[in-house]
Design goal:
21 strands; 28% helix; 383 residues; alpha+beta
Amino acid sequence: MDRLTNTIRPYAWGSTTAIAELIGVEPSGEPQAEMWMGAHPGAPSRTERGALNELIDADPEHELGKEAAAKFGPRLPFLLKILAAGAPLSLQVHPDLAQAKEGYAEEERRGVPIDAPHRNYKDANHKPELICALTPFDGLCGFRDPAETATLLEGLGVDSLKPYVDLLRAHPAEAALREVLTAVLSADPEQMSETVAEVTAAAQRLGGAYEPYAGIAHHYPGDPGVIAAMLLNHVQLQPGEALFLGAGVPHAYLDGLGVEIMANSDNVLRCGLTPKHVDVPELLRIVRFEPTDPGVLRPEASPDGEEVYDTPIDEFRLSRYVLPEGAAAHDLTAATPQILLCTAGTVHAGELALEPGQSAFVPAGEKAEVSGVGTVFRATVVA
């Protein structure tokens, strides 16, 4: 297996301390948002044999296994990350596979440069994802019941929110959510900025259930995404709990450290909380306007000690082993590619000793045995 050297992405919303504390180094004072583990061309992991994407390109059947290469093509179908949110990420949704293929082909046909700031589709793949908390983790996920949102908005006592409250109470759920989100994102910017300022002041005064939105508004003053965020479920994960985010589900991460895994795609449509491009018509085509329970996932333990986070897609499978003192070694040898990530203690993966934040790539079929005292996450595919 190969020890990985990984890139840390310094996005502005990143925590200045969380990743440094995990890996046991002094914080640099700069934001550190994501550590990428995988073969994404934007920041491929490196090994002593070379960049991981180049190794896979050179011999996909050896690195990925015949079944995975045949099912997903000659590429690693997932990207594993350590994500450290110190400020809210953009409110966003991801397309399903058919929408991604259609959107990518259309932008290619129109000649939109791949790096254009208004480009929506960087590839033709979908981007389901899973976030597993390493610390208490705050996020927004899926639409709240419209009647509950109406009560929440009404409690702010802001007159300009009354039309949204009336819509949320007067229409079937999906129609109400579509109309309100459309109205929020299409409103006059100056008037919306005034509304958000009033909402911010009220949320700060009231606290309680309004506290998360006051925090969001602090980072994004005047942004219509503050109102859009109030349409969503606020979720607080405890360490070990996770969220699965499927196509069309609006979401945002607010604060905390977690392990994230996703299909190997960069397709994002934004709803707000960002200075980046918001394509309202395309966004409204992709969003699934239905109230949902966030569906907090807890791992399902198997007899051999593997704790699996069950998801409905095949591009990734995430599990973990919590290794106590004196535990027997676990044989993880598989016919699929794997990335092993230590998040606590010291884990021995073959001949490699992994400390928190360190990881290894295991080519398909290679011997993989883990032992030690600590926690190791295992990322692979369902082939």
